[in-house]
Amino acid sequence: MPSAAVHIPVASSSGSFLITPNVGLMVWVLVIFGICWFVLRKSVFPQINAMLDRRAKAISDEIDSAEQLRQESQQVLEEYRQRLAEARTQADEIVTRARQAAEAHQKEAVETARGERERLLEQTRRDVEAETRRAIDEIRREVADLTVLATEKVTRKTLTDADQRRLVEEALADLDFSVLSGGEG
Q1: pLDDT tens digits along 131-170
Q2: What is the DSSP letter of 4?
Q3: What does the pLDDT read at residue 21?
Q4: What is the mean pLDDT of the chain?
Q5: How far is CA 133 from CA 23, 114, 119, 122, in A?
Q6: Are residues 106 and 154 in contact, defined by beta-carbon separation less than 8 angstroms?
């Protein structure tokens, strides 16, 4: 490959053009910078400022909205806690009423059972007394019949009704039935 010599133009001055200040170039750079600054200041910077203002307003609105949502959620949370407390209070009241009703029902059932027991005991006492009276009356009749039979055998004759009654009354008067009737005679 043939090597081509690349020719770089060199400034005619003795030093590099970047190091040596050129007043004419500096003036043109300052003029162009001023024009660019003027154009940017009149057209671009206001748009950038407007965009930044809109963004700041949007962020501020979002912060306000978030704050409002936080306050609303705090209120909802307070309402929830209040309702939960009310629900607990109502549940406690319901449980208390249920316990009281159960205790009242239990007392009523006990009183009813006691009353029924007393009624049954009284009925049993009356039945026993009635049976005792019947048994005593039956024993009296048997004793009377046996007394009449024994008297007939002893006297070997039949007694009249008046004599039989008199003998029965005397025999019954001699017997102690109070032991059988539990104090009644």
Answers
A1: 999 988 888 888 877 777 777 777 756 667 787 778 778 7
A2: P
A3: 72
A4: 83
A5: 155, 28, 21, 16
A6: no
Following DSSP, what letter does each residue of 104-161 receive, concatenated?
Answer: HHHHHHHHHHHHHHHHHHHHHHHHHHHHHHHHHHHHHHHHHHHHHHHHHHHHTSPPPH
Predicted structure pTM score? 0.39
Structure tokens at 57: 């307003």
CA distance 138 to 60: 114
Block residue for tokens 């300052």: 30
Instruction: Give per-residue pLDDT as tens, 89-141.
Output: 999 999 999 999 999 999 999 999 999 999 999 999 999 999 999 988 888 88
Alpha-carbon distance of 150 to 80, in angstroms, equals: 102
> 181 with 132: CB under 8 angstroms?
yes
The maximal CA–CA distance of the chain, rounded, in angstroms, is: 195
Mean pLDDT across the stretch 7-27? 65
DSSP string of 93-118, one letter each residue: HHHHHHHHHHHHHHHHHHHHHHHHHH
